[in-house]
Design a protein that fits this description.
By secondary structure, the protein is an alpha+beta fold. It contains 27 helices and 23 strands. The strands form 4 sheets. Strands 15, 16, 17, 18, 19, 20, 21, 22 and 23 form a 9-stranded mixed β-sheet that branches. Strands 11-10-9-14-13-12 form a 6-stranded antiparallel β-sheet. Strand 9 and strand 10 (275-277) form a beta hairpin. The radius of gyration is 44 Å and the shape is elongated. It starts with 10 loop residues before the first strand and ends in a 5-residue tail after the last helix.
Length: 787
Amino acid sequence: MLLPKFLDNPFQVKLSFHKLIERLEETAAQDGLRGDEARQLLYKVAQSPELRDGITDVNQLLDNDELISELLTDLFPPLLTNNEIKAISIPYQGLIFNHTKRFREILDNAGGEFDFNIRDFDDHQFFVLSCCIILHRFYDTTLDFTKPLFWDIPSAEGYMKHYRILYNADFMEIIPTPKAKTLTREEINHLMDSYDNLPLWKEKFPKDSWIMKGFSVMTLVDVTVENAVSILKSNLIGAASEPDLHRNIANIFGSIFRIPDLGVGFTVFNNEAHKFTRAALGKKMRSFLLPEQEDENCDELLCNASYKNIMEQHRYFAVSDVDALLAREPDNKLALHFSKQNIQSFILAPAVKNGVLLGIAELVSRRPKELNSVTANKLDNVLPYITDSIDRRMNELQNLVRSVIQQNYTTLHPSVFWKFKTEAENYIQSTHAGLVYNLKEIVFANVYPLYGQVDIKDSSITRNLSVKDDLLNQLNQLIAILDSLGTYAPIAAAAQNVADLREFVNDLLLDVKADTEQRIQHYIETNIYPLIISPNEYNKEQQEAIDNYFKELDAATGEFHLNRRNYERTLSLVNTKLTGIIDKRQAEIQALMPHYYERFKTDGVEHNLYIGASITPNKNFDLGQLQQLRLWELAVTAEMEIAQHELKPILPYHLDVASLILVFGTPIAIRFRMDEKHFDIDGAYNIRYEVIKKRIDKAHVKNSHERITRRGKITIVYSNREEKSEYLQYIKILQDAGILENDTEHFNIEDLQGVSGLKGIRIGVKYDQEKPVEDIAYTTFYSQLKG
């Protein structure tokens, strides 16, 4: 027997059998055996009037235990006591007695200290539910507050069983006391809208203001499997932490299979690599197929039977006795694998979505026979939820991977993402409707292109110089080593090889060709290394020289790559500085006027910009925005020039840069090339723009050998007087700001293949700044533009 759980209660609880006694009195009025039995029982009941009037003390229940059982015989047939899970109780409270034998065994197995506790049912819910019973009985108000009630009771074996609680209240009545308040319709309506206002409910239904007289029949229904599946769904959908989720899933499967220490794991299948893996879901999950290794080939892990069931037929594979299987098949690799983990029975269940194997759910037991091909069928109602959850998580991971790739490796800019998204949505909707849909090409028509570059001058010459210095150092040390070894016969016989090395030195002093580095290294590896690596007995000093030589060959730390590393570091520092500036300024201008932007690291930085109404169809576009973007481009190019000049003193090689901006006043179309995953110029006429881009930085001033680009200068290439006038306005704004020098040059550009009539402006950058250029707000420039 358990005592009441909720003390704060609108009811005075009177445990009474008056309704049962009244029905007994009706039977006693009849003739025959039934009437005689009823009259005899009523005589006994009359000796204990509290059974009719109401039991108020637990001792009264104990004193009348046998009589109450006799009174309840029709409700608790002896023949069903081992099958039904029933008892007498007061609804929602802990007063429970007259259990069937099966009910009593369940509670005894749970332990003597086990308490009555309805899952997720607290004092607030109990009080409001009690009030709703009164509203229903006396005010004809339907407030369907009821919900399934569950009692979780541990089994003797240690796993949790789940029971649904059902109450039969036919033998109860609700009686108001003088303390009971009469409610108006307005008050009832107010209560309907005030579930969370517990003080209001307690005000309208004071404590002990109503009497609940009678008893209810409490019935438990074992819903362990169904409830475990429901809890599993909630866990898979919810936001539980990874360890909690794994622990909860293990407990749930333990309840379903009635194995308290059931092991549960999952191994992902990588279809591309045809391997099992633990890492494909982003976080390591427990895996019995891969208890230690990160991945493994399927045919290395599975035996023939399991491979056929799981990989080919997508069916469960179960072994009820691992030792018995090994006795029959001593070389069965899967049985050996599980035996090493002290697993005696297991089930492997393939998780398949749309015909694609996602992975394998693993259930394992330390005891034979507990898991087998029959119990494996319990997974039929569970595995679909596991599969959906794994599929969702794998998709989430793939989305994250695509996001990272897009952010770091591709040029799918946010300004154009909307059009790709719209096209993808069209494809998905059509596919779901069963229609064939061919993805349309992504084209943006009538956009204005802007192109510019900040090029590191003499980068090729500097690289050749770094290669030359490193090779000279290497050759000279190698010649010195060979000279010191001259007394040894193999070296003495290799005089021609030493002469060849000296010839390489002389060649390097003259020039470095494209294949010089490869040719020298190949010769050394083929002809010299066999001599000095041969097992000759060199003295200590000579051996140390040889060892030191090979140590200095290390590309990351060795002396023979020092100049090349300095060259690469110079390029890296310059490019990082320049890209940091243009990316930061890009974010500013992008907020003012969305446009497509991409930039590339070369020996310097190149950028492409495209602006037009087709890129931002939901915003108005006008040529004033194009002017602002062109002014922005000139300003950020000057800022990058200044930043590189300030960086130069700390560079291993003090390289300069020369900048170029190409003006193209005719709108063009760009098309996304699916094969190369980037935008390209669309249309034959627009190809002219691409031709100019590729050839202009190598062009010369007309009728001269002078390149149009020059270190410390920005060169602007244009085609007509309108463009010249426009850019002279931008130059004037930046000259007034102290960013550009007052040394404007004008010149014609030599004809290029298929292109003629180009002109150029060259303007110097003012390196000595009174305040950092990065602190200047470009918006102050835009306000000076004239329409």
